[in-house]
Amino acid sequence: MSEELLINISPMESRVAVLDNGILGEIYIERHHKLGLVGNIYLGTVVRVLPGMQAAFVDIGQSRTAFLHVNDMQREPRPVAESKNKAAQTTKKETDTDINKDGGVLDDSADSLAVMPPVVSAQSTDVVPVTKTLIQHRLHESQRILVQVTKDQLGSKGARLTTNISLPSRYLVYLPSSEYIGISQRIDGEEERTRLKTELSSLMQTVNLKGGLIARTAAERVPVDKLEEDIYYLLQLWRTICARRQEINHHQSSELIYQELSLPLRSIRDLVHADTEKVIIDNTQVYEQVRYFAKEFVPFVYDRIVHYTAEQSLFDVHRVEDDLRDALKRRVDLKSGGYLIIDQTEAMTTIDVNTGSFVGGRSLEDTVYKTNLEATHAIARQLRLRNLGGIIILDFIDMLEQQHKDDVLESLQAQLAQDYAKTKITQVSELGLVEMTRKRTRESLGQQLCEPCSTCQGRGFVKTAETVCFEIFREIMRCARTYNSPKKFTVVAHAAVIDLLLTSESDTVADLEYLLGRVITFDVENLYTQEQYDIVLD
């Protein structure tokens, strides 16, 4: 599978598109006035501790306070001997750690790079070891604490935090407050996993690096000297963060300690791999920055970076703009004639599979089976492209044969295996439903590019003109009973409603005038929505 990376830069935003065999697979958008927070490290101030939720709200300088749950804090320290025994017992489990491309989270002292994270009080910068498990015993209001963002603000919810700092590089993720070496699940070969674990363990001892490391997927078959360079880079980065923390003015409630790389550089670090044929950039300054960064950290892709200088937009040439517009639609058409309906709600996302115009050729069961198989490919692509996360319900067309259900599920799992985000799916139910979850760290494409409709307030529908007409009739009768003096009623409404009142509902209007003994007139207001109307008493 060939892959290309397109980087489009404008004064307003940066966009990165990932093309799989010429088809848009993923899109990343970063507005310059609203940069993402995931990966940033802050020295924040606890503003509220909620024992009932075992959580705290932390001020990190954003419009909303961020959320820190007790499960996202380091565990209480164990004696050294116990820690070693525990680490030995859990080596196999930790080695299977999956890596999220957006990075993780952590914290500690510059000199020792010790296992425990520091908690900084408002009056002092002394390191305070965590010795309790309940959050009310670990945090208090006005306390200063080093945290990292794991999820951006989503809707009305503030950012999600952790004190388990993690620092990603090209091949590794450094975990200052952990005690293990993990290997990405995407690295399959047992021999390669063992090699990485052995070499990383040796390198950590050589450079006296305390903490934990995770080998990312890109580390597969990477020579030891490259791994060593990454370790030295991460060690220096962590020391810089610790030094920066010590320099902070304690009168400030929050301070940014470390900011994640910009989107173009982050995409080079996290998205390019051996199958990446080209990285095409349409901005001269960013092109030079990316080349310099690639030469230092991802040298194999250096010669594949291309500067796009043609007049036509880079995204237009590769039909990315068209695919982006399609990705905001509810309906996704399949090549066979079937289609998907995708609805995103506050609680979950539902995807409905339909045969549409596809009639097949052998039997109904065969038609349904082929439609569902084709839908698994489209579903996996849409989940990545739209960045849909949380709970997702897939409503496949009902199949009778168990083998067909198993094949559809197997196909879905195979397609989701290419997804960077962690997913978990269930078996096909008797109703043909599949429940799954997909890890969410940032807003979906629709949430990022759209807002609720001002006409329907996000419902997706409005009252019919006929319904509004009947509401107007009831309101006129209510006003006539309440106010005896008006001699005339003037209805001000949308053009579609007025047209209906003067045509199909004209007899009802005449009957109402006769019943009330008052004249009813009409005015069109083009600025009103179909549901808006006013009744003026004259």
UniProtKB/TrEMBL annotation:
Residues 75-103 are annotated as: Disordered. It is found in: Cytoplasm. Coiled coil: none annotated. Belongs to the RNase E/G family. RNase G subfamily. Its cofactor is Mg(2+). Residues 37-164 form the S1 motif domain. It comes from the Bacteria. This is Ribonuclease G. It comes from Psychrobacter namhaensis. InterPro entries: NA-bd_OB-fold, RNA-bd_AU-1/RNase_E/G, RNase_E/G, RNase_E_G_thioredoxin-like, S1_domain. Residues 75-101 have a biased composition (Basic and acidic residues). Keywords: Cytoplasm, Endonuclease, Hydrolase, Magnesium, Metal-binding, Nuclease, RNA-binding, rRNA processing, rRNA-binding, tRNA processing, tRNA-binding. Pfam families: RNase_E_G, RNase_E_G_Thio.
